[in-house]
Amino acid sequence: MQELRRRLQEAEDTIDAIRNGHVEALVVSAPEGEQVFTLRSADQPYRLMVEQMREGALTLAADGTILYCNQRFAELMARPPERIAGQPFGEFVIAEDRSVLERVLRSESCRAEVQLFSDSGAMNPVQLSSIALSIDGVRTVAVVVTDLTPERTERGLRESNRFKDELLATLSHELRTPLNVILGWTRMLLTNQLSDTARRHALELIDRNAQAQAQLVNDLVDMSRMTTGKLKVELEPLPVIPALEAALGSVRPAAEAKNIAIHTSWHVRDESVLADATRLQQILWNLLSNAVKFTPNDGHVSMSASQEDRRIRIEVTDSGIGIDPAFLPHVFDRFRQADSATTRRYGGLGLGLAIVHDLVLLHGGDVAVHSRGIDQGATFVVMLRAVDGPVADADRRVDEVTRDV
Questions:
Q1: Residues whose CB falls within 8 Å of the CB of residue 17, separated by 6 or more in sequence, listed in order
Q2: Is the pTM of this model over 0.70?
Q3: Is 108 exposed, middle or buried (0-12, 13-18, 19+ CB in 10 A)?
């Protein structure tokens, strides 16, 4: 018992000495003989591990000054480690994310995403995983920096491939459906066995489906022209009210077929907008036909126009299926609909609103969308420049303003 107490006391004394910094080395007996471990050599594996990590590693002072960085973080920033130590970490974080960095510095432990910019000009999305440490009574923050660029690139490629597959499936369906109708009724007409009434019905169906197919092709051609900078717009002063009423007249039959009431509210008189006549009609028709398409039977669609400063505000509101708040940022994306069920039920390639967006920007205007959510309807707002007289140099090309598009 006395021998056991003596050994326990020696162990406690050794631990206390280590804790108090009175020990510089330990001698450990092992089958292969006695081995000496200095405190520096005990630290070495961890130092090597941090230096060879695939993630960046930082030690920050309480104010965000970088006390230490490993080689991986230096590579991310395209700067040697000696030019990073002593610099504020906020110097490498974009201005919009510096409030996130403040939260990381204040927290005991935190995980957050920020954007870093390097000396090479690259922008790197990263995840910061931090934990606060107290060393000799001084607060420091240890941070692991994980580069999210490969993950996001891979995710983007997966999304791109998925959208491509959905587009091809939708395109083949949308083109094949009217083509089948045209071919079927054409063959029946060639038999000369249809009555006059059936013949007229066949011609009406062929005409309607040919127009639908032509619209799909025109949308694809317009989008291609806009993305390649070859769409030409001729800007001139156009009276607002006649343009709005012409667009309403083109969608009224479709609205009447679904018993949809159309309300108008004009708070302008003789005002004109700077626009291309054909493209302005395309903007208005797309917005109105979209509202009618996604509004159920017995619903309502309203259109209003007013002047704000030197701009004309045009609103199209419907009582239709509405838009999920999560999808609102993607409403004007090309080839995007809320889900595949929407495509199957309502048809289309998801190009109409993307075309509206790009055409409005070409006119020097703005377009926005608002919705309270599913089954709450939607409102589209277009702002165009108002003019009083003729406009010089009205002929413009899309490639001159492609930065805005």
A1: 23
A2: no
A3: exposed
Say how far apart CA 178 and CA 176 lie, in whole Å: 6
Place of tokens 């700067």: 79
H helix intervals, 229-364:
240-257, 277-293, 340-346, 352-362
User: Quick one: DSSP state of residue 328?
Assistant: G
- The size of the chain, in residues, is 405
Report, as an integer, the average pLDDT of 32-60.
67
Q: What is the largest CA-CA distance in the chain?
A: 120
In angstroms, rounded to a whole number, what is the distance separating the alpha carbons of residues 62 and 351? 51
User: In this structure, what token pair is assigned to residue 403?
Assistant: 């930065």
Least confident piece of the model among 5-19, 45-59, 230-244:
5-19
The encoded tokens of residue 342 equal 């929407």
The torsion of the CA quartet 108, 111, 113, 118, rounded to 10 degrees, works out to: 60
Are the C-beta atoms of residues 294 and 338 closer than 8 Å to each other? no
How far apart, in whole angstroms, are the C-alpha atoms of residue 348 and residue 197? 30
List beta partners, residue 194: none
Nearest by Cα to 379 from 301, 266, 271, 298: 301
Q: What are the backbone dihedrals phi and psi of residue 42, each rounded to the nearest 5 degrees, phi first?
A: -70, -30
Domains of the chain (ranges, CATH numbers):
43-147 (3.30.450.20), 152-228 (1.10.287.130), 232-400 (3.30.565.10)
Question: Does the pLDDT at position 394 exceed 90?
Answer: no
DSSP letter string over 64-120?
SBEEEE-HHHHHHTTS-GGGTTTSBGGGGB-GGGHHHHHHHHHSSEEEEEEEEE-TT
Going by their DSSP bridges, the two strands 272-275 and 311-318 should be labelled as unpaired
Please give the pLDDT value at position 385: 92
Q: Please list the residues that pair with 399 across neighbouring strands.
A: none
Nearest to 380 by CA among 285, 298, 307: 285
| Residue 342, pLDDT above cutoff 60 | no
Q: Are strands 261-266 and 300-308 parallel, antiparallel or unpaired?
A: parallel
Which burial class, exposed, middle or buried, applies to 8 when counting CB atoms under 10 A from its CB (0-12, 13-18, 19+)?
A: exposed
Convert the pLDDT of each residue in 205-251 to its tens digit: 888 888 877 877 777 777 777 766 777 788 899 999 999 999 998 88
Identify the weakest region by mean pLDDT among 76-85, 171-180, 207-216: 171-180
Q: What pLDDT sits at residue 166?
A: 64
135 DSSP β-pair partners: 138
